[in-house]
Amino acid sequence: MTDIQPLQTLIVEDFGAYVGKRSERLRVTVKGELKAEAPLLYLRQVIVRARGVSLSSDAILACAERGIALHFVSGVGLSPGASLYTTGLTGTVLTRRAQLLAYTDHRALRVAGAIAAAKIGNQAGLLRYHARSRKSTAPKLAHALRLLADEVLDHQAELDELLARMLTGQDALQADDAPNAHPPHDGKRYPIDRARNALLSIEGRAAQKYWAGVKLLLPAELGWEGRRARHAADPFNSALNYGYAILARHVEQALLLAGLDPFAGFLHADRPGKPSLTLDLIEEFRQAVVDRVVIGMMGKGMSLGMGAEGLLDDVARRAIAERVIARLEESAERYAGKRRTLREIVQMQARQLAAHLRGDRPAYLAFAAKW
């Protein structure tokens, strides 16, 4: 069902829908029947997640003129998917030049390390958040969650040690030169290339502890066997993947608005068609925006239906989209001394990253949620 979310997001979910413009509104119709109308003045984005949808050139131009992003989401992950933005957002030469040059020095390593550390901290924070809420009702579970949170944080200390060694040159020829290391970037091996495997290894081991804790929070009858990012065919993993896909569109838009290239990342290696910087920045927000929401849905016994093709059905996708978008738009997180929505924080983090890469800020401070 096509609908308008509270944050002025128009989600088009009807097969064969037509999106046109009438006066100052977008109109969605199916076989001539009006499904939704959205004033352009208040719209921030349009998400198309159905097949067979067509858009008029007037609607596309109206969105471009007002900075409204058009996202096309497959519903199963970050790709395949596409987004349309006004070309005016891409005219940020100084920022993009600085972003590309940062890959060759220690800025890339520091940014990647800050993001990985924030992700680990947020994973531990979410486990502790759930432990507090079960302190009286399920003390054994709360204790187990706290222990796993501590184990997750142990890896943050390991990360700090690695960064200290790399940044002082003590590990100039570290194990990242192993045969399975990522191929040199542009024929050269920069600091981030030498550190990436070790960074991802630490992050991966922390994630194992984190998902072990998440499993304790899920209903036993769900029979969850573990985290699967690709080819997931169970409701929980599919819900996470769909939520991350929605979050990724917000992150990508924030990066573009900040003048950054979503495909030139640091923690994630370059690949053709891979939005590496989007994948980098999304790491700071997975727990606060998506994991907390989906775990909560499961904890309340919500049933997420799966279709015949092993994908979430329309009702489940709609429920996830509503809650993830509401979390982005309606949350009130303490950030830089004020209460802000997570959507605002995503944008501010992107701008902070751009400022750091240009040399306008001495360091990049990754987002650490207040649990």
Can you describe what's shown?
This protein is of the alpha/beta class and 371 residues long. The chain contains ten helices and eleven strands. It has helices at residues 57-65, 93-102, 106-133, 139-167, 191-217, 235-257, 276-282, 286-299, 314-330, 342-358; strands at residues 3-5, 9-12, 18-22, 25-30, 33-39, 45-48, 54-55, 69-73, 81-84, 333-335, 338-340. The strands form three sheets. Strands 1-2-6-8-9 form a five-stranded mixed sheet, sandwiched between helices. It has a four-stranded mixed sheet with strand order 5-4-3-7. Strands 10-11 form a two-stranded antiparallel sheet. The relative contact order is 0.13.
Give me some keywords for this one.
single chain; 371 residues; alpha/beta; five-stranded mixed β-sheet; four-stranded mixed β-sheet; 12% strand
Give the secondary structure arrangement, pairings included:
Layout: E1 3-5, E2 9-12, E3 18-22, E4 25-30, E5 33-39, E6 45-48, E7 54-55, H1 57-65, E8 69-73, E9 81-84, H2 93-102, H3 106-133, H4 139-167, H5 191-217, H6 235-257, H7 276-282, H8 286-299, H9 314-330, E10 333-335, E11 338-340, H10 342-358
Parallel strand pairs: 2-6, 3-7, 6-8
Antiparallel strand pairs: 1-2, 3-4, 4-5, 8-9, 10-11
- Number of E-state strands: 11
Mean pLDDT across residues = 88
Query: Biggest sheet, strands in spatial order?
Result: 1-2-6-8-9
Order of helices and strands: EEEEEEEHEEHHHHHHHHEEH
Strand content range: 5-15%
Helix content: 40-55%
Largest sheet geometry: 5 strands, mixed
Structure classification? alpha/beta
What is the overall number of helices? 10
Uncertain residue ranges: 173-181
Q: N-to-C terminal Cα separation, in Å?
A: 34 Å
The whole-angstrom Rg is: 21 Å
Overall geometric form: globular
